[in-house]
Amino acid sequence: MSHEYALRRLWRNTNRTNLEIPNTRATIAVNSTYAEKLAMLKVQRIYIIAIVFLALWNVIANKDFAQDKSESIREKDLRQIFTRCPIYDVNETVILAHETDCTKAYKCSWGKRYPLDCPWIDDKKTQKLHFNLLKQYCDWPWAAGCIDCPGNANDGYPSIKISHDVNNCNLYYQCVNGVKQLRSCSSGLCFSATCQDCVRNRTGGNCE
């Protein structure tokens, strides 16, 4: 009896083990499948978030580009050009063009003008940068719009006035569609690039 009992017990234990092993494997397989699905869901979520982020970034970039382009057009508007120093400091630095010299300018501070010199282009000091009235910084002479009319077909041609290339204060050029047209001041007046007008006394950036 004891031998038969031992065999039965062994048989039961063996069957129980054989029955439990597949269940354990099934559980492991289910857990593994679940983990894989979770991993796939995480990857899909990351992918969706990346797509949304790129889409938003593209919209923001296009908006910024459009804003920058509109600002580049607005900076050519004569209404944005300062001809006198504001009495109170504004949010951005205001620089006025020199009355005659393209390589010089005036920096404004609390209603007063302070002379500025554009830096030399080369170490030999043969040529200086020119002040760009529209962009408010020293620029390459060919791009500054002090000797030649600024602008291009894509951005437009600002209708500014530039000094005459001959030392005659009565003469100046009006830029019309990027072309210089000769103009002259009334008797007793001199053209000032600072004031963008003909004045009686242009010395020191004066517009009176």
Uncertain parts: 14-22, 57-76
The radius of gyration over CA amounts to 39 Å
Given the structure, what is the number of helices? 2
The helix-strand sequence is: HEEEEEHEEEEE
> What percent strand?
15-25%
- What's the end-to-end separation, in Å? 130 Å
What structural class do you assign from the helix and strand content?
alpha+beta
Mean pLDDT over the residues: 76
Sketch the major β-sheet: 3 strands, antiparallel
* Count of β-strands: 10
Q: What is the overall shape?
A: elongated
Q: How do the strands line up in the largest sheet?
A: 1-2-3
Percent in helix: 25-40%
Summed up:
This protein is α+β, with helices and mostly antiparallel strands and 208 residues long. It has helices at 2-74, 141-144, and strands at 95-97, 104-109, 112-117, 130-132, 137-139, 161-163, 171-176, 179-184, 190-192, 197-199. The protein contains two helices and ten strands; from the N terminus they run H-E-E-E-E-E-H-E-E-E-E-E.
Task: Explain what the structure shows.
- The chain has a domain of 126 residues.
- Helix content is 37%, strand content 20%.
- The strands form 4 sheets. Strands 1-2-3 form a 3-stranded antiparallel β-sheet, with no helix packed on it. It has a 3-stranded antiparallel β-sheet with strand order 6-7-8, with no helix packed on it. It has a two-stranded antiparallel sheet with strand order 4-5.
- The longest helix is centred in the first third of the chain and has 73 residues.
- By secondary structure, the protein is of the alpha+beta class.
- The N and C termini lie far apart (130 Å).
- Strand 6 and strand 7 form a beta hairpin.
- It is elongated.
- It is built from 2 helices and 10 strands, in the order αβββββαβββββ.
- Keywords: Chitin-binding, Disulfide bond, Glycoprotein, Membrane, Repeat, Signal, Transmembrane, Transmembrane helix.
- One of its GO terms (molecular function) is chitin binding.
